[in-house]
Amino acid sequence: MSVLDIVTLPDKVLRERTLPVTRFDEALQQLIDDMIDTMREAPGVGLAAPQIGRSIKLTVIETLADVDEEGNEIDGSRDLYVIANPEIVWTSRKRVKGIEGCLSIPGYVGEVERFESIRVRAQDRNGKKIKLRLHDWTARIFQHEIDHLNGVLYIDRLTDPENLWTEEAYEAMQEAGDEEETAVSDAEVEVKYVVDKTGS
Ligand code: ZN
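^ Those are the sequences you sent over. The predicted structure of the assembly is below.
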């Protein structure tokens, strides 16, 4: 197992269409383990193969752990997904706005609208066919990662070209906003969480 280099813009591999995974062999298992290590080391909640320079339809995703009242991670509350050849087969009518970052665009975050829920057909790390129903934050990560497999980045999907900020500018904006507001909405809590944990 090893940590791989993450490629960043303007590397062209991030803009290529990827090829399907066809051989679920030992070399692929090694690559998957390395991608999981790389994602955790970054740290990020997702990593797609083009981000480590491989133009194939493969991504790893790990949701954030739930925390107890003292803020400690609850064991077993993280979900790890290894996803090959994914296809979004259904999307909810409802879309939600949220703040995203990307390990290949370090130092920036932007506002993106995504489907609130999606259904995905894919293969697991052994090539077995799987179907997933995903919601909220997990659905957002999946949409971000599947975009990577089509050469699409979150900066292509901004709600407005101006809604891209440096992490510092965004945090300053959030702090300024907090002083004006008495109640913090769930959306804002999520946003801060994302900024803290950087991107995918
Ligand atoms: Zn990304």
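Helices lie at 26-41, 136-148, 167-180, 186-196. Confidence is low (pLDDT under 50) at residues 182-198.

Shout if you want it in another format.
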